Amino acid sequence: MKQVYLHLRLAILSLLVFSACAQDEELAQIGENVAASDVLAIRKVDVANFTTGTATRVINDAVTVSFEAGNSLEDVKGDEIGILLIGDDEKGFANVSFKYINENGANKWVNKDGVSYTSKIKKAIAYFPYARMMKDGEEFIPSSVDELKEFKKKEEAAEFKDKDLLIAEISDIQSPQLTIGFKHAFSLLTFSAEATIKIAGEEISYFLDIANIAFSIGDRQYTPDLVDSKYVCLIDEAELPQNNFRYFYTIDNTAYVKTLKKTMALAPNQCYVLPCPTSSEGTEGFAVGDFFCVSNSTDNIVIIPGNAAAIPESLTCKGVVFHVMDGAAFDSYKEINGLTDELPGYEGSHGLVVSIKNGQPFGANNDIAKIQAALGAVADYNSLDVSNGYKLTQALKGAEGVNFTALDNHADDVLKNATSWYAPSFNELKYLIRGKQYNEVSTAGQVYINGQLGKINGVQLGGTLPSVTYRERGGDKGIQTMQNGVDGWIGMPGESFIPICGF
User: Fold this and answer.
1) Looking at residue 12, what is its pLDDT?
2) Are 225 and 372 in a shared domain?
3) Spatial CA neighbour of 85 closest among 126, 39, 38
4) What is the CA radius of gyration of the chain?
5) Which residues contact 311 (CB under 8 A, 6 or more apart)?
6) What is the pLDDT of residue 330?
7) Running DSSP on this structure, what letter comes out for residue 186?
8) pLDDT at 55
9) In which residue ranges of the chain is pLDDT below 70?
10) Among 124, 154, 184, which residue terminates a domain?
11) Residue 277 backbone phi and psi in degrees, to 5
């Protein structure tokens, strides 16, 4: 009997030990008597930028990862990191979600399910963006980076951020506090077309606008994403084969097809730039839509062609060319506006430029009679067909009793070989808004110039645009405005003027 009792006690003790071990292997949750200090937490998250393929130079190339915080665990706007927990058997047993939320003014990663640290965790794979993965109707938990990558590649994500898989492997976990150092799981291909222009002894390189970018590896077609004005594509390939890789692009309505001179090896978290050469270099001279810039080192005017994708760092863009004048037209422009300063033009040609930023409204507490008297001293002050904005502006600035503040925010912006900034006449607004067919009502010019201004973060043209042309019509008298290419109402507008200059 004693022997039976002893065996019974030993059996019970064995069961208790086994039960304790089993409980230790389970994934405990908050609410199951788990101390808050044992809950898996993210202490810090870093994200490495891409590096170049030929050196270790860091480059984000328009791809900068920033996490968005939600206001609660239920807020769909908050980003989520996933952490795959892997045991001794090298198999994943949990896919834990961490939500990025703002609490009391501070952003932090919150363990959504309160999963705690256990000795069962031997390794973890952190990844972004989080996904609940299913395979054959059941939850799938990858056990390796390769499995995770293969699953993520099958997803049809619309946003580049969701395609850009970030991964961090964490080994030898001995604490609930995790530090994550993300790297990009895939390689990044970018496409670059560069041209060079020489002016006044300076040689300036700039990037061209590229369109219709695509490439193929064998029979597989790829379409890059447009991210921050650059075409980029994530790819999970070991190499770009010399004889089986082609890329396509269009510059200035000319289509090109290129191949590689030799096979290019690829690696994760590295960026590879594919050059997109053209049949010509940058051209001298200028055209409507070109960018009117100032050299940061010499203050010389440099006009960058309108097909540029961005302004070089050595230049500061002041505006966009919207009208070109030949020699006879410029001579007439100078005479009409009483310009006596030498204006050599740019490569012997002349034009008008719209500023990248708005001016200000006319000014407060003005008497229309005094404005009329000031403008009336200028020939053709009421004509809709004369480009005399410069002279009308000077008349208003020097008139007694007229508070003309429209250009005060441009007063200190002095340009070489150009007029000061001035308010446009109605005729100059026609060039700006209507475009080439300036005698026909349209907004073709406005649409095109706005597209160019958008490239350089300039203020968009729209709404009611005041001129400095004086008109009287049907009992109304005052400033003639334009809206949608049509002569609008007449009076004292509250809208800001659009500064322009001539060169």
Assistant:
1) 36
2) no
3) 126
4) 33
5) 206, 291, 293, 304, 317, 456
6) 97
7) S
8) 53
9) 1-37, 53-62, 280-284
10) 184
11) -70, 155
Give the separation between CA 245 and CA 97, rounded to whole angstroms.
39
Closest by Cα among 361, 364, 394, 401 to 377: 394
Give me the count of residues in the chain: 503
User: What is the reported pLDDT for 366?
Assistant: 93
Q: Helix axis angle, 389-397 relative to 368-376, nearest 10°? A: 130
pLDDT of the residue at 57: 59
Domain match, 228 and 330 both: no
Residue 297: enclosing H or E segment and its boundaries? none
Kindly state whether residue 21 falls inside one of the protein's structural domains.
Answer: no
Token code pair at residue 50: 């891409």
Q: Which two tokens stand for residue 33?
A: 């008597």
**In terms of domains, do 313 and 258 share one?**
no
3-state secondary structure of 246: strand
Rounded CA-CA distance 258/273 in Å is 13
Q: Give the total number of structural domains in the chain.
A: 3
pLDDT score for 222? 94
CA dihedral 74, 76, 81, 87 (to 10 degrees): 50
Residue 10: its pLDDT value, please? 36
**What is the domain range of residue 146?**
28-184
Distance CA 43, CA 22 (A): 29
Q: What is the pTM of this model?
A: 0.72
Sign of CA dihedral 308, 314, 319, 325: negative
The Cα 422–Cα 398 span in angstroms is: 13
Of the residues 275, 304, 324, the one at which a domain ends? 275
My answer on whether 374 and 253 are in the same domain is no
How many CB atoms sit inside 10 A of residue 269's CB? 17
| Residue matched to tokens 């005729």 | 427
Instruction: Read off the tokens for 52.
Output: 């170049």
Residues 476 and 332 in one domain: yes
Cβ count within 10 A of residue 444? 15
Q: Which is nearest to 396 in space by CA: 478, 462, 319? A: 478
- Token couple for 92: 């994943």
Residue 118 is predicted with a pLDDT of 87
Please give the Cα distance from 436 to 447 (Å, whole number). 12
Tokens (6 digits) for 125: 């794979």
CB atoms within 10 A of CB 16: 10
Paired tokens of 451: 């597209």
Q: What is the pLDDT of residues 56-87, one digit of tens each?
A: 556 666 678 899 999 999 999 999 999 999 99
| Residue type present at position 418 | A
